[in-house]
Specification:
heterodimer, A: about 290 residues, mainly alpha, MetI-like fold, about 75% helix, globular, B: about 350 residues, D-Maltodextrin-Binding Protein, domain 2, 2 domains, 15 helices
């Protein structure tokens, strides 16, 4: 009897995972491997035949333009993630501390932007940030500007729209972790005469780090791969690698080069987030040891 | 009535009744035939439906079905299904003609097939007897006269210092709307095989260029919302802005104008070439030819007499203007697309 229950337990998880694994293998891993293969093709066309060449990667790394675009993409991604953290953490924290019913409705409001089409959001921002838009009209009516200023097609505008799009991911990640932090811990800290800032710094932040990291990673990865927002809000003047990859594949039909750029972005993005995670985890462990002593 | 008279009248009446369907069939020569044409959608198809398809159906019973879609996608569908093509006729701009010819999908149409082919203006048929041109659109410099007091005169004026932060140009990703680059090159001593002068002007114009428009509608909105006061734009769309009250001036560069021509093609092996020739005949007739100028202010390709209100608005409206239409080696232009996109991106985005 015991044996059959145990074996069922061993079998069941594998069976439960099977559909997802098959789905990912068929529709993610295989296409990604195909893309990886095409990034090693020489020439500029997918159908130009086989062969193996590092030509696309050499071209990418030997041209300073692409390196600078990659760097700018990472800086923008980092900035968006940081702003999302600053904006999203207080919201996520406050939602986590609400009674369940109130939390539910406010969470729905917080994630509302995710239910809208990206194109609708972006075109909304085009109207808001335009020369005849709400922001300019407001500043002019308040006497801050004498004439309309250029907000659209600038880097701050791109960052603003990216933050608005991705901040719900940060809110949800933070909220899901903070709900697991028992309020008793905060009360205990207060009993030990820790002020609110010390409690926040020494109790809340360390315990919320897993949620912060998940949110940070999500927002960072989504930001560095964004291409619609930079193209429409940045007027295509703002260089982000996602836009270049889109153009390379969709306009130039140069799959090998686009695939190589996509893989550079994938590997460097993965490396960057892994490094950040490792750094923060090591800090936490070191901090934990210090307190343990 | 006597018996003999009755027989005469009855014979004539019977002959009339029997002949009626035959006469009807003769007048509706293409009854029961439907030709499928790829459409561009919106006002474009509507204009062709009214001025070409509807009269043809009245006259000879031929039905035309416009199937709206993106030309690039339709072209792929056509080439992929060459044994059972989804279209009988195919409308394509100049760059797509190169692909159609390469794929060997279209047949020649001469004056012996379609009489009105003789009316096509010299220099407006870029691919020999392949493709029948019926519409022309040019990419020209434009400016908003409310804000730009010194008129632009050439493509190269995009680099003028007074346009700082005020210009929008089409993204170089499209072979058609990026023809301004050829204008910049040739105005400055370059050519289709030597685009360096164009890139030099683009570098000088960089502080002026506020955005690279990813689509015609996006650029239209930028002019409409006064995000930009100058740039390169389609002549027909500039007219559309004027109808909306935006004082956009279209510039005709004296050194030449770069344009695309839209062609109608007969797909090789189509079932009803005679019916297709009738469609082309109607398209090139006065009624058919004026459809697109009236709807979209796109220029004509035949010697049709233009009413004064149209002549005023069209870019190619006289022999002198027609002479400004530059000849383009589309094969070379398409081949160099990647290099152009990369070069312009590096200049504008770096």
């Amino acid at each position: 009897m015991k044996h059959s229950v145990l074996s069922r337990r061993i079998v069941n998880p594998a069976l439960l995972l099977a559909p997802m694994v098959l789905l990912l293998a068929g529709f993610l891993v295989v296409p990604v491997l195909g893309l990886l293969r095409s990034s090693f093709l020489p020439g500029s066309h997918l159908l130009e035949g086989g062969g193996f060449s590092l030509q696309q990667y050499i071209r990418f790394f030997s041209d300073s333009y692409y390196s600078s675009v990659l760097l700018e993409t990472f800086i923008d991604g980092f900035a968006v993630s940081l702003i999302c953290l600053l904006v999203g953490f207080p919201v996520g924290y406050s939602l986590a501390r609400l009674p369940p019913l109130e939390r539910r409705w406010r969470t729905i409001i917080a994630i509302m932007p995710l239910t809208l089409s990206l194109v609708v959001i972006v075109f909304g921002w085009l109207i808001v940030l335009g020369r005849n838009g709400v922001v300019n009209s407001l500043f002019i009516s308040l006497g801050i500007f004498s004439s309309p200023k250029q907000f659209l097609f600038t880097r701050p505008a791109v960052l603003l729209v990216l933050v608005q799009q991705f901040v719900p991911f940060m809110i949800l990640s933070v909220m899901s972790v903070v709900t697991q932090i028992h309020p008793v811990l905060e009360q205990a800290a207060a009993n030990l005469r820790a002020n609110r800032f010390t409690t926040f710094r020494r109790i809340i932040i360390p315990l919320a780090v897993p949620g912060i990291l998940v949110g940070f990673n999500l927002v960072f990865v989504l930001s560095i791969s964004a291409f619609v927002t930079p193209r429409l809000v940045g007027g295509a003047r703002i260089a982000m690698l996602g836009s270049l990859i889109y153009e390379r594949i969709m306009s130039e039909l140069n799959w090998p080069s686009g695939a190589a750029m996509a893989f550079v972005l994938f590997v460097s993005g993965f490396g960057f987030t892994a490094a950040i995670n490792a750094l923060i985890a090591s800090r936490l462990i070191a901090g934990g040891k210090r307190y343990a002593v | 009535m006597k018996r003999r008279e009755f027989l005469k009248v009855a014979t004539v009446a019977a002959a009339g009744v029997l002949a009626a369907p035959y006469v009807q069939a003769q007048s509706k020569k293409f009854s029961g035939i439907t030709l499928r044409v790829n459409g561009f959608g919106g006002l474009y198809d509507e204009a062709l439906r009214k001025a070409v398809a509807a009269p043809l159906e009245d006259k000879c019973g031929l039905r035309i079905q416009f199937i709206a879609g993106a030309t690039s996608t339709d072209l792929v569908k056509l080439i992929a299904n060459r044994d059972n093509p989804p279209f009988d006729m195919f409308m394509a701009d100049s760059p797509y003609m190169v692909e159609l010819l390469k794929a060997g999908m279209i047949q020649e149409v001469g004056a012996s097939d379609v009489r009105n082919v003789q009316r096509i203006l010299p220099g407006f048929r870029e691919f020999g007897d392949y493709g029948v041109p019926f519409s022309v659109a040019a990419v020209v410099p434009v400016y908003n006269s409310k804000y730009i007091k010194q008129p632009l005169a050439s493509y190269s004026d995009i680099a003028r210092a007074d346009l700082a932060g005020r210009a929008v140009i089409p993204a170089p990703t499209f072979d058609t709307s990026s023809l301004y680059l050829l204008g910049l090159a040739e105005e400055n001593g370059g050519s289709i095989t030597d685009m360096a002068p164009a890139y030099k002007v683009m570098a000088a114009a960089k502080p002026n260029i506020v955005a690279l428009a990813q689509a015609t509608v996006a650029e239209l909105q930028m002019f409409q919302n006064e995000e930009a006061y100058a740039g390169f734009f389609w002549d027909g769309r500039a007219h559309e802005l004027r109808t909306k009250g935006i004082p956009i001036v279209t510039v005709v560069p004296p050194q030449g104008v770069y344009s695309i021509t839209t062609y109608i093609n007969l797909i090789k092996g189509m079932k009803y070439p005679e019916a297709a020739h009738a469609y082309v005949e109607q398209l090139l007739s006065d009624q058919g030819m004026l459809a697109l100028p009236q709807a979209l202010r796109e220029s004509v390709t035949t010697d049709v007499d233009l009413p004064e209100e149209l002549r005023r608005d069209l870019l190619f409206n006289s022999p002198q203007r027609n002479a400004l239409k530059k000849k383009i080696d589309w094969q070379v232009w398409i081949t160099d697309r990647s290099a152009r996109i990369e070069q312009v991106n590096k200049i504008i985005r770096s």
